[in-house]
């Protein structure tokens, strides 16, 4: 750590000579305006595609072919009503919300346990164990979804909340992030706990969790977005109409477009609706989300 | 043994690890292994399977087409990872530097990340369809003639841009925390010394952020290899002339369009191996820096 | 129907995909579970129905799907046999679910298979020809010759033709008139199309002359109208094919196509981009569109200009006949005989003239039996709706006895399709036209050898 700070410091001295103070009195103001302009520009670029989608969702058929077509259309109410009522998006979104919430809570618990064991226990083959968890990153649903289906069906979980949550509960990313965070908690605190003879459960509840509030919230938001956007697996394993999730509802809308009805507007209205919950979470929890993920070295 | 390893009761440790290991084994490793086993069989249409040993692998390794797809995928991943991180780093830096409105800019910049990939791909088609796209007209006046249904290089660029765009937010989330965590004193010193902003970013901040950046390299690599499927599937179908035929799409097509289960399984094993090796190398590098760099 | 109709479709789609998953799974399991016995699929032949009621997997979205649901409801009223129509999103998904379903052992009772994928389904060896299911008094001679020519396999009606179509050309009459072209004398060859396109673009009426989705079906039409086979063994109808053909006419075709592209007279909407191609026509970017006759109702409704449906443009003056398109219903082997009795009744119902007449009017797919044709004629339907007759005439004027008009019937149809579509883009962008056509031919031939060899 020290070396890394010293390294740039040495460079600092070198650059100082080259950039001798040019500072004009109002340079900072000018720079601030420049910064804002740059940011507004970049943010617009990033948001533009979604703005287009939002505009499409207000049109009748949703064909937009030029910038001139980007005036909002007058079909907001009926498009969103169609999607929410006729296509049952309200219900799908509720199901998605339940699924995502269960996944977030379960993942969080399992990952806290695992990371605690990895960081605070003296274990053999710890690196291998950690790699074992990390390598699950290489096994996304499409690679294994066929045998997975058979397995879950054999367990009799088809159509249940278990089927769309339990297989997600092991999380390499969350374990990794928590591990890094736990490693950054000063060892003095840990040693105090040891001297006081605090047991592992108490240690988790009264030392680790309070010191990890921010990161737990942040990582929960990320897990929520991940769970919310799951499509292929719920599509395959859920077949009771009442239990389906929003992403599958979206695919249904797209299927209609392919089927000959040019209703891009409905597809985009559905997209906007499914985007709302994750977006709300991003806004509500922006603070912990944006402050928590400090990944430090060992 | 580090000073953090304050507990030695292996049974408790086992209990804590058990749920994660169990779920990983049962729902991740076991199905993957079962799929991999099929790579040793020749099966068309999923009906008559015949044990062929490593024939499927031999076919892949001797196929010029597959080798070039492998190279293409590695190139694609490199561009996506580098592109995402460069853009996200600059954006994060701008937000870090700006005085007011930080959180508005941040939320605006990261929310495309919440969009499902399939929707993101569809939206991109609206934008840059060569004849129907909203932007094809304005781009033409700028001298850019969109022709990515026929022009492989353009198709590669379009898909790459879409893939990068989608992943920026995720990176910004991690980078901003890391950048905000840099001691203010260091920033002040640099300022007082009149170090330009860009230099400060590259020579002061980036080295301190290495652990975060390494972590993101790994996650972005996984994303580039696996998470970009929807863009290829919806936007280019792997074409033109295979210019965007990355391994995950190729694998999907083999399995679900051509029904060559055996060959498709072999492809998924190769893909696993390639990304596994890459990830392992990245980890070794991270470790090296973390352990011995300081 | 009403407002909960899309909901039903949603359900069905899911179930179908579930079937797919199960199927694929079973394949894998068959493998891992039975390594000792060659990994053979132990469930082979033992197919169970998906549900108590009859289920039909289909690919008819939107309005067409609603029409199918209505047919099911009418059938139920008449016979008390329950039927669920399950929308599967696309023909590709029906195919996936079908192939997978045979593995999993759970199958729908009727599968709407795109004619392009017919051989892939037949090759499973688990299909019961509908001729053995239909009631004994059912008259298979009532089908139009051109229709049965494709669907009769080994002298038996293998599947029940239902929604059949061919490709035709739609023209924007208003744009033609504005450019000084005579909309009553539409282009009939590709050379005419080029001439008309030059005028349309030259006069600044439209951005491009013509567009069509990049789909193998259009190339197939050009082959068959020219009387050329796409593969040996009569496009797969007379044994195993081993050779993809690229006769001189095909060079002429691509030469024209390339010229149209280079001169900005044609625009590529994308691979299998049916929706985009239609949008280009409806939005007035192109004054000519090649697409299915099944679009006739929608195109006339969506366009703010007058639309004419005219015959497909040919490469030369030769006009042998179009290939068939659309789909037919297959029935799996392995159910109880009582069940086949019910399925037979449903099949018969769907071929009934009154059902066929309604289907044709609502969709634009042509009627497939002589008796339904007679009924339409007796109502003067075609006089009042001439655009609905274009495809039918094109079919009836075709020479059904020429093997070239039989659509390709290939095991690796999806591979050949992908090859032709991908390579077409390469060819029109190539500086070495002949060489690129050779590449396509070699690659498609290799696909055939891979499969049949």
Number of helices of chain B: 12
| CATH topology title of chain B | MetI-like fold
If you consult CATH, what is the topology of the largest domain in chain C? Answer: D-Maltodextrin-Binding Protein, domain 2
* Biggest pleated-sheet summary of chain C: 6 strands, mixed
- Please state the second-level CATH architecture of chain B: Orthogonal Bundle
Helix content of chain B: over 70%
Overall tally of domains of chain B: 1
Q: Which whole number gives the mean pLDDT of chain B?
A: 86
CATH classification, class level of the largest domain in chain C: Alpha Beta
Instruction: Tell me the number of helical segments of chain C per DSSP (H or I, 4 or more residues long).
Output: 19
Low-confidence stretches of chain B: none
The end-to-end span of chain B amounts to 19 Å
Q: How does the helix and strand content of chain C classify structurally?
A: alpha/beta
Compute the separation of the termini of chain C in Å: 50 Å
**Rg over CA atoms of chain B:** 23 Å
Approximate strand percentage of chain B: under 5%
How would you describe this structure to a colleague?
Chain A has a single domain (83-292), classed as MetI-like (MetI-like fold, Orthogonal Bundle), CATH 1.10.3720. Helix content of chain A is 71%, strand content 0%. Chain A has 15 helices and no strands. In chain A, helix 3 (76-86) packs across helix 14 (264-284), helix 4 crosses helix 11 and helix 4 packs across helix 13 (246-258). Chain B has 294 residues and is mostly helical. Chain B has a single domain (62-293), classed as MetI-like fold. Helix content of chain B is 74%, strand content 3%. Chain B contains twelve helices and two strands; from the N terminus they run H-E-E-H-H-H-H-H-H-H-H-H-H-H. Chain B has helices at 10-37, 55-62, 64-97, 102-110, 117-128, 136-141, 152-180, 184-192, 197-227, 229-236, 247-256, 261-293; strands at residues 41-44, 48-51. A two-stranded antiparallel sheet of chain B has the order 1-2. In chain B, a hairpin with a 3-residue loop joins strand 1 (41-44) and strand 2. Chain B is flat. The mean pLDDT of chain B is 86. Chain C has 453 residues and is of the alpha/beta class. Chain C is built from 19 helices and 14 strands. In chain C, the strands form four sheets. In chain C, strands 2, 3, 5, 6, 9 and 14 form a six-stranded mixed beta sheet that branches. Chain C has a four-stranded mixed beta sheet with strand order 11-12-10-13. Chain C has a two-stranded parallel ribbon with strand order 1-4. The N and C termini of chain C lie far apart (50 Å). The interface between A and B is large, with 121 and 112 residues.
């Amino acid at each position: 750590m020290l070396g890394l700070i010293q390294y740039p410091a040495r460079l600092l001295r070198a650059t100082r000579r080259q950039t001798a103070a040019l500072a004009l009195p109002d340079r900072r103001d000018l720079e601030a305006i420049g910064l804002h302009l740059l940011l507004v520009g970049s943010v617009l670029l990033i948001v533009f595609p979604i703005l287009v989608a939002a505009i499409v969702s207000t049109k009748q058929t949703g064909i937009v072919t030029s910038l001139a077509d980007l005036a909002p259309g007058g079909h907001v109410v009926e498009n969103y009503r169609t999607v929410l009522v006729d296509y049952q998006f309200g219900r799908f979104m509720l199901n998605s919300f339940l699924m995502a919430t269960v996944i977030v809570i379960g993942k969080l618990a399992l990952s806290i346990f695992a990371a605690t064991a990895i960081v605070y226990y003296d274990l053999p083959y710890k690196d291998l164990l950690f790699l074992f968890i990390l390598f699950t990153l290489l096994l996304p649903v499409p690679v294994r979804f066929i045998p997975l289906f058979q397995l879950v069906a054999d367990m009799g979980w088809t159509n249940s909340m278990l089927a769309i949550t339990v297989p997600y509960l092991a999380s390499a990313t969350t374990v990794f992030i928590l591990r890094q965070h736990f490693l950054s908690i000063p060892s003095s605190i840990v040693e105090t706990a040891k001297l006081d003879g605090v047991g592992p459960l108490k240690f988790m509840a009264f030392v680790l969790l309070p010191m990890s509030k921010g990161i737990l919230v942040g990582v929960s938001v990320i897990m929520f977005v991940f769970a919310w956007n799951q499509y292929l697996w719920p599509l395959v394993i859920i077949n009771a109409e009442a239990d389906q999730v929003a992403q599958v509802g979206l695919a249904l809308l797209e299927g209609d477009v392919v089927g000959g009805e040019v209703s891009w507007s409905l597809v985009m209205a559905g997209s906007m609706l499914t985007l709302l919950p994750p977006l709300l979470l991003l806004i509500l929890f922006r603070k912990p989300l944006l402050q928590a993920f400090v990944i430090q070295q060992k | 043994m580090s000073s953090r390893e304050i507990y030695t009761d292996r049974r408790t440790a086992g209990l804590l690890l058990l749920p994660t290991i169990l779920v990983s084994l049962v729902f991740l490793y076991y199905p993957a292994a079962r799929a991999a086993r099929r790579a040793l069989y020749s099966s068309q249409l999923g009906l008559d399977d015949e044990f062929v040993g490593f024939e499927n692998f031999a076919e892949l390794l001797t196929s010029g087409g597959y080798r070039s797809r492998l190279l293409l995928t590695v190139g694609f991943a490199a561009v996506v990872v580098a592109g995402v991180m460069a853009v996200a780093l600059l954006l994060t830096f701008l937000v870090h530097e700006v005085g007011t409105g930080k959180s508005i800019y941040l939320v605006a910049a990261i929310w495309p990340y919440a969009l499902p990939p399939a929707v993101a791909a569809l939206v991109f088609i609206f934008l840059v369809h060569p004849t129907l796209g909203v932007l094809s007209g304005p781009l033409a006046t700028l001298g850019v003639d969109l022709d990515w249904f026929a022009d492989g290089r353009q198709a590669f660029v379009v898909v790459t841009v879409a893939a990068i765009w989608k992943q920026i937010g995720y990176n910004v989330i991690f980078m901003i925390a890391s950048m905000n965590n840099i001691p203010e004193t260091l920033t002040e010193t640099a300022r007082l010394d009149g170090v330009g902003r860009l230099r400060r970013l590259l020579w002061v901040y980036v080295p301190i952020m290495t652990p975060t950046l390494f972590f993101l390299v790994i996650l972005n690599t996984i994303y580039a290899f696996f998470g970009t499927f929807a863009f290829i599937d919806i936007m280019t179908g792997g074409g033109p002339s295979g210019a965007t035929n990355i391994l995950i799409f190729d694998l999907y097509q083999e399995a679900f369009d051509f029904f060559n289960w055996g060959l498709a399984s072999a492809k998924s094993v190769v893909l696993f191996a390639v990304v596994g090796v890459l990830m392992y190398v990245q980890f070794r590098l991270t470790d090296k820096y973390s352990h011995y760099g300081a | 129907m009403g407002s909960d109709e899309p909901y039903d479709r949603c359900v069905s789609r899911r179930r179908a995909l579930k079937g797919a998953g199960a199927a694929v799974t079973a394949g894998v399991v068959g493998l891992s579970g039975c390594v000792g016995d060659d990994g053979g699929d132990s469930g082979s032949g033992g197919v169970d129905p998906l549900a108590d009621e009859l289920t039909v997997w289909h690919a008819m979205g939107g309005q067409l799907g609603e029409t199918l649901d209505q047919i099911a409801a009418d059938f139920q009223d008449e016979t008390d046999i329950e039927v669920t129509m399950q929308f599967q999103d696309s023909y590709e998904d029906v195919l996936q679910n079908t192939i997978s379903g045979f593995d999993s052992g759970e199958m729908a009772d009727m599968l709407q298979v795109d004619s392009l994928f017919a051989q892939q389904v037949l090759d499973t060896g688990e299909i019961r020809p509908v001729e053995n299911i239909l009631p004994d008094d059912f008259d298979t001679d009532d089908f139009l010759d051109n229709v049965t020519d494709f669907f009769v396999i080994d002298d038996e009606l293998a599947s029940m033709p239902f929604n059949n179509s061919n490709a035709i050309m739609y023209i924007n009459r208003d744009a033609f008139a504005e450019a000084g072209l005579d909309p009553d004398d539409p282009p009939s060859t590709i050379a005419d199309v080029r001439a008309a396109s030059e005028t349309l673009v030259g006069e600044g009426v439209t951005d491009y002359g013509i567009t069509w989705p990049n789909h193998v079906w259009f190339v197939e039409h050009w082959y068959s109208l020219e009387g050329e086979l796409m593969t040996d063994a009569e496009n797969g109808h007379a044994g195993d094919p081993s050779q993809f053909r690229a006769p001189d006419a095909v060079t002429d075709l691509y030469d024209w196509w390339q010229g149209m592209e280079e001169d900005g007279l044609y625009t590529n909407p994308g691979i299998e981009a049916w929706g985009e191609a239609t949008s280009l026509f409806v939005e007035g970017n192109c004054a000519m569109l090649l697409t299915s006759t099944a679009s006739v109702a929608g195109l006339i409704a969506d366009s703010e200009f007058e639309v004419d449906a005219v015959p497909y443009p040919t490469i030369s003056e030769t006009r042998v006949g179009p290939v068939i398109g659309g789909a037919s219903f297959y029935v799996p082997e392995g159910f109880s005989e009582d069940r086949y009795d019910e399925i037979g009744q449903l099949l018969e119902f769907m071929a009934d003239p009154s059902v066929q007449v309604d289907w044709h009017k609502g969709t634009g797919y042509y009627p497939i039996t002589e008796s339904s044709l007679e009924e339409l004629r007796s109502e003067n339907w075609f006089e009042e709706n001439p655009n609905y007759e274009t495809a039918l005439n094109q079919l009836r004027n075709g020479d059904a006895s020429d093997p070239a008009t039989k659509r390709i019937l290939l095991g690796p149809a999806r591979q050949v399709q992908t090859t032709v579509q991908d390579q077409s883009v390469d060819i029109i962008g190539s500086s070495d036209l002949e060489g690129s056509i050779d590449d396509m031919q070699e690659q498609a031939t290799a696909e055939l050898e891979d499969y049949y060899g």
